[in-house]
Write a structure and sequence with these properties.
By secondary structure, this protein is of the alpha+beta class. The chain has three helices and eight strands; from the N terminus they run H-E-E-E-E-H-E-E-E-E-H. The longest helix is centred in the first third of the chain and has 20 residues.
């Protein structure tokens, strides 16, 4: 193993490159066992010290993709919370920050919608009404391009 000096700070580009390299290594190990692997989002990013990264290993579906239990739960519950099943993974902005919808937790009746802030992957909870309004606002703000 080469004696490499650690960087003074992490950058988003370095974190993403490390994620890709680690995913490649994990995929090689998983494939030897007939399994599939996918990387979770980078979270807990502190550019001075580190970040959190996880991988999900699973038995692949017949088409080679992996089952996403959060997506399935979201799709099943979305309409009950005033959202569309297609809203999973959709991004919305609060005016200051951009978030990506990552799930629904019906055990949190006041703040059931889970989302990650896009730049740093930090998790947040929102009311369903907030998210529905912000998605609609974002759709109105988009003007068609010719």
């Amino acid at each position: 193993m080469p004696n490499t000096r650690p960087p003074k700070n992490l950058t988003p580009a370095l974190c993403q490159r490390l994620q890709r390299e680690m995913l490649k290594a994990c995929s090689e190990v998983a494939s030897r066992h007939g399994l599939a692997v996918e990387a979770n989002e980078i979270t807990g990013m502190d550019f001075r010290w580190g970040f959190d990264l996880g991988f999900r290993v699973s038995i692949p579906l017949p088409d080679g993709t992996v089952l996403d239990p959060e997506r399935i739960r979201f799709e099943a519950l979305a309409e009950a919370f005033g959202l569309s099943a297609d809203d999973y993974g959709r991004q919305f902005t609060t005016g200051r920050d951009t978030f990506r919808i990552t799930g629904i937790d019906p055990r949190r009746p006041k703040y059931p919608i889970s989302a990650q802030r896009v730049p740093d992957g930090q998790n947040f909870k929102f009311t369903a009404d907030q998210v529905a309004m912000l998605i609609q606002k974002g759709m109105r703000d988009v003007t068609p391009q010719e």
